[in-house]
Model the fold of this input.
Amino acid sequence: MTACDPASAASSSDDWTVSALYTYPIKSCQPIPLTSSPISATGLLYDRLWMLTDAHTGRFITQRQVPRLALIKVAINPDSNTLELSAPSSPALRLPLNPQTTDLGAQYKVRVWYDDVYGRCCGEAAQKWLTAFVGKPTRLLYKDSNETRLVSRYLPDDPTCLLPPQSGFADVFPFHITTEPSLAHVNQHVPLPLTHQHFRPNIVLAAEGASPYDEETWKRMEFEAPDERTWSMFVTSRTPRCTMPNVDLSTGEMRTDGEPMKSLRKFRCSDPGKPTYVCFGMQATAQHSGQTISIGQKVTIRERGFHSLTQPL
Done:
C-alpha cells in the first residue's frame, strides 16, 4: 500500500452532495457553471451539442490540436435565446440557442473516436469567426436532432436503466463525474494546482472525510428529489485522460514540460484492463430523462462493483 493508494486514505462513503455542475455547449470550449439543470436524453442542458471540425479533413477539433479553444467563452442569453461566443481580440458571435432546420446548413458525418455522429453546419458567420480564431478553415456543427447516437459499450446491466445511453458530441457517455476528495489527492502529487476544469466534469460530488477515488467502485447512484421519488445514475467506467489537462487554461497554451500528465502517469494508471492509461473521473448515464439535478442535492451510493476497460471506450 502506497501513499497514492486510495485504500490508504480515509474511508469510503455512501453519502455525497452535488457541489458543482457544468455544461459545455461547444465541445472543448469553456464551460458554463449551472446551479441546476434538467436531465435530457443526451446529458445536462445543451451539453456538447456543438462541435468544431476541420473544414478540409472533416475531423473534429479539440484543445489537443488547438489549445486556444480554452479561451473561447460561451454564454447562454435567455432573453435573446442565443448562444454567445467571445474570445480575445474577437468580436462577439451570437448563434440561435435552439436552432431550427432553417438556421442550419448541410449535414456532415464526423467520426468521434469510435462513433459516427451527424451534425448540421451552423452557417457562414460561425465558420468565418472560428476560422479567424483557430487559424485554419473551421466549421461549427450542431448535433443533428434527427440522428440518435447510441452508446454501444460498457452499458449498464441493470434492468431499471430505462433510457438507452446516448450522447451528443461528448466523447462517449452523457455524464462525466469527478469528486472533491480525488482532486485534492491529485493536487498533492502534481507540481501545479489543478481545478476540476482541467478534467471537464459535468457533475462534481463532495463528501466529508471520504476517500479519494471512491467513485471508482460505484455502480449505481441514487439522487434525492423534492417529491421523494428518487432517481438513479449508473456509473459505467473510468475516464481515460488525454493531454488536455496539460493546457494552461489562462493562456490557451499547451505546457511544454508535459505536466500534469507526466506526474499523473506515476499514480493514476488505475484501470486493470488498461494499466497504461491515466484515468481520472467516471463515465455515467441516467436512469431516465426529465428529472432535475441541482447543487446541494443529496446522492447516495446504492451499488458498488468492479470496473475494467476491456474494450475501447
About this structure: Residues 1-10 have pLDDT under 50 and may be disordered. The chain has three helices and 19 strands. The first strand starts at residue 15 and ends at 23. The two ends are 29 Å apart (CA to CA).
